[in-house]
Design brief:
Blueprint: H1 3-24, H2 46-51, H3 60-73, H4 93-113
Length: about 120
């Protein structure tokens, strides 16, 4: 797979996932700390930051959201846009780097277009 294909796949997935978050969790981008966003770490990936801690009993909201969201998005896409686990391309560091770039852009664009209070 070429770098362009990896980047384009990440861009498409993030766009679809961000739109779904906009619909289901309107303030999702305010829950994301871009300084700690890490697609390799379940508690710091985009889904972990939006739903909460990944480990222990507190992980159930993460796991429930992951299953529900991926069920809607995975039908159209081969890759995982939300978290690092359970994905056949987990060894692909370029892909996770591309996800970070596109999630950062999605968060920043939504923060910039929100009215100030």
């Amino acid at each position: 797979m070429t770098r362009i294909t990896i980047d384009r796949q990440a861009q498409l997935l993030v766009s679809a996932a961000a739109s779904l978050f906009d619909e289901k969790i309107p303030d999702w981008y305010d829950r994301v700390d871009l300084t700690t966003l890490d697609m390799w770490a379940p508690s710091f990936c985009i889904l972990g930051q939006i739903t909460g801690w990944y480990y222990g009993e507190a992980a159930e909201p993460y796991k429930e959201a992951s299953r529900a969201i991926q069920a809607q998005i995975r039908e159209a896409y081969e890759f995982n846009a939300f978290d690092a686990w359970g994905d056949p391309y987990v060894e692909n560091s370029e892909y996770f780097d591309a996800l970070i770039v596109h999630w950062t852009a999605a968060v920043e664009s939504r923060r910039q277009t929100q009215p100030t209070s």
